[in-house]
Amino acid sequence: MMQTNENAIEHIPVTEPERQYYFIEKCKDYVRKISEELRRPLTAAVITFGCQMNARDSEKLTGILEKIGYTMIDQEEKADFVIYNTCTVRENANQRVYGRLGQLNRVKRKNPHMLIGLCGCMMQEPHVVEKLKKSYRFVDLIFGTHNIYKFAEVLATRFESERMVIDIWKDTDRIVEDLPSERKYSFKSGVNIMFGCNNFCSYCIVPYVRGRERSRNPRDIIREIENLAADGVKEVMLLGQNVNSYGKTLEEPMTFAELLREVEKIDGLERIRFMTSHPKDLSDELIEVMRTSKKICHHLHLPVQSGSTEILKKMNRRYTKEQYLELVHKIREAVPDISLTTDIIVGFPQETEEDFEETLDVVRKVRYDSAFTFIYSKRTGTPAAVMEGQVPEDVVKDRFDRLLKEVQTIASEECAKHEGTIQTALVEQVNEHDPSLVTGRLGNNLLVHFPGTKEQIGKLIDVKLLECKGFYYIGEAVEK
Ligand code: 5AD
Ligand code: SF4
Fold first, then answer.
1. Which helix (H) or strand (E) is 192 found in, with range?
2. Hey, how many other C-beta atoms are within 10 angstroms of the C-beta on 268?
3. What are the MTTase N-terminal domain coordinates in residue numbering (predicted)?
């Protein structure tokens, strides 16, 4: 008896990704059996919260689910397996997950073989997992950001054990390559170039939930993009919490600008984007690569967070208002038509009216093409959470409204400047409201709607921007 058991254990591969392919096969058997009992295919829905990094992770989960035999659907209340890929960057993201879990519990009561899985950044917070264990017993599996590649293994454990499976790692230095992944779009894709973050901005939970910074090997990145391009992908978005510090931790260090030069050479690839850039690490070398590149989109997301040097210091951002403005000036000199976007936090502890006006001043000076504005959210465990001088809610709300108005007015004025120009759009879809139109994305990341057909999806088309509608355009295709 002993002998057989040992043999069985020996058959499980210990190396990755082979081990996960083994568990994918195992899960496939379980899914086939349940599906035969129910006499219908099993369905799964992956619901993504948060950033592009999470969206990319969800594609990896979807790739594995499809291999296992699930049919993917969008509606969570109709799915046999629902996964929430969570975000915890602000408290309201957490609240939304608890709310939706409550609703899902009612569905699960009527559908007992339904599975509910939770993963993503929120799961890396111990108090969240405690709460789930106590009050959300109907959840079936919980895993974190560091071991997402183990999804099939965690699911197999759940199939075998019939009880809640929790697998969370505190941190990792490992990157597992070559797992399945399913793209949401055929013509564009996110590509992780690094994971984690070492910046420790004082308000931000990300370094605690995504771990230390580690870069993927450039050869793996290039190979992935070459395969994507061969598969018809025209545009890639290189993803990392701080892409400007790419490559510093590699055995053979390499800069982000050097990586971009390599990506540029890939045949068939037409557009390169990247996110997110930390101003403190944006090099002259990168600006030069952006200036000379034929493929890098003229769009830069450059989070400022605050315009007040005092607040920036308390945020541990490691640049001043003047340094930020100087950087913007340098980029605009090199790439005059660059579209700049940003993130801004309002109501950081001790922010005074004067500090806030410095932020408005930066907004007016830079004239962003768009900006994501956030109300400061206290994240337990971050240095800012215990700072004195939290700003009263009504004051924050008032500042937020004033900021939003300023940002929107400027953004629509900037948008209008391009009226009448001809620009290239990558067609993404048939327009949701009017099927005679298609929707394309311009290099500056804005959308244009113009008469077209679904055959144009995935193609780059020159479009005349006839009318600016504030933050998108109505246009018409023009002959090259
Ligand atoms: N409160 C509000 N906004 C935050 N962000 C990150 N942490 C917080 C927080 N605690 C914002 C930052 C960041 C974006 C992704 O989310 O602006 O750039
Ligand atoms: Fe993305 Fe940060 Fe939210 Fe995680 S916490 S999903 S890294 S924004």
1. strand 188-192
2. 13
3. 42-160
DSSP assignment letter at 391:
P
Helix, strand or coil for residue 348? coil
Using the 8-state DSSP alphabet, how is residue 422 labeled? E
| pLDDT at 2 (0 to 100) | 44
Q: Report pLDDT for 181.
A: 87
Cα separation of 391 and 393, whole Å? 6
Q: How far apart are CA 276 and CA 459, in angstroms?
A: 26
Whether the predicted pLDDT of 4 surpasses 50: no
- Residue entry with tokens 């605009």: 332
Tokens 């969008």, located at residue: 74
Provide the whole-model pTM. 0.92
Cβ–Cβ under 8 Å, residues 189 and 229: no
Span 466-470, average pLDDT: 93
Q: What does the alpha-carbon distance between residue 99 and residue 214 come to, in Å, rounded to a whole number? A: 34
Q: Is 119 annotated as a binding residue?
A: no
Three-class secondary structure of residue 237 per DSSP: strand
Confidence of residue 9 (pLDDT cuts 50, 70, 90): low
CA distances (Å), origin 448, targets 19, 326, 343, 411: 45, 32, 23, 15
Please check if 297 is assigned to a binding site: no
What pLDDT was estimated at residue 153? 95
The whole-angstrom separation of Cα 429 and Cα 411 is 24
The predicted pLDDT at position 128 comes to 96
| φ, ψ (nearest 5 deg) of residue 309 | -60, -35
Do residues 120 and 82 lie in contact, with contact meaning Cβ atoms separated by under 8 Å? no
Cα(53) to centroid(ligand 2), Å: 7
Rounded CA-CA distance 380/384 in Å is: 9
Q: Taking a C-beta distance cutoff of 8 angstroms, is the pair 458, 234 a contact?
A: yes
- Closest ligand to C-alpha of residue 387 is 1
The structure tokens listed for 200 are: 């420790």
DSSP 217: P
Instruction: Specify the ligand 1 atom closest to the Cα of 384.
Output: 10
Q: Residue 62 belongs to what H/E stretch?
A: helix 52-68
Distance 89 CA to ligand 1 centre (A): 6
Q: How many CB atoms lie within 10 A of CB 25?
A: 13
Q: Is the pLDDT of residue 10 over 70?
A: no
- Could you identify the atom of ligand 1 that is nearest to the CA of residue 203? 10
Q: Strands 437-442 and 422-430: what pairing?
A: antiparallel
Answer for the pair 441, 471: CB distance below 8 angstroms, yes or no. Answer: no
